[in-house]
């Protein structure tokens, strides 16, 4: 499942540079995560870097974008142009 950034975001700029998939960008009011690019860091790290470093813990899993580990790995392979 992709992650999302809630409106508790303080725009501290910690999450965006650590995202290996460039899934995080500035939205109209606070940072947002593109669910088409978010793999929860599967293929890169053991845990989501943005959530791990967020000082206000405002990056939960997004129930609107449910994916299992296999789906996240397939997305990672697609994003990195590796054969699935």
SSE order and pairing:
Layout: H1 15-18, E1 24-26, E2 31-33, H2 49-53, H3 69-79
Antiparallel strand pairs: 1-2
Question: For this structure, what is the CATH class?
Answer: Alpha Beta
Strand order of the largest sheet: 1-2
Stated plainly, the CATH topology is called Alpha-Beta Plaits
**SSE class:** alpha+beta
* β-sheet strand percentage: 5-15%
DSSP strand tally: 2
Query: How many distinct folded domains?
Result: 1
Structure in words:
The protein is globular. A two-stranded antiparallel ribbon has the order 1-2. It is an alpha+beta fold. It has one domain: 2-Layer Sandwich (Alpha-Beta Plaits), CATH 3.30.70. It has helices spanning 15-18, 49-53, 69-79; strands spanning 24-26, 31-33. Keywords: 4Fe-4S, Electron transport, Iron, Iron-sulfur, Metal-binding, Transport. It holds the Pfam family Fer4_7. Residues 1-29 form the 4Fe-4S ferredoxin-type domain. This is Ferredoxin.
Key features of this structure:
Alpha-Beta Plaits, 3 helices, transport, 84 residues, alpha+beta, two-stranded antiparallel sheet
Brief summary:
By secondary structure, the chain is an alpha+beta fold.
């Amino acid at each position: 499942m992709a992650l999302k950034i809630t409106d508790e975001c303080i725009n501290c700029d910690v999450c965006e540079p650590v995202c290996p998939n460039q899934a995080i960008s500035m939205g109209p009011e606070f940072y947002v995560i593109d669910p088409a690019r978010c793999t929860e860091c599967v293929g890169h790290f053991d845990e989501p870097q943005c959530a791990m470093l967020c000082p206000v813990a405002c990056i939960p899993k997004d129930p609107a974008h449910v994916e299992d580990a296999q789906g996240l790995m397939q997305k990672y392979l697609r994003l990195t142009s590796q054969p699935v």
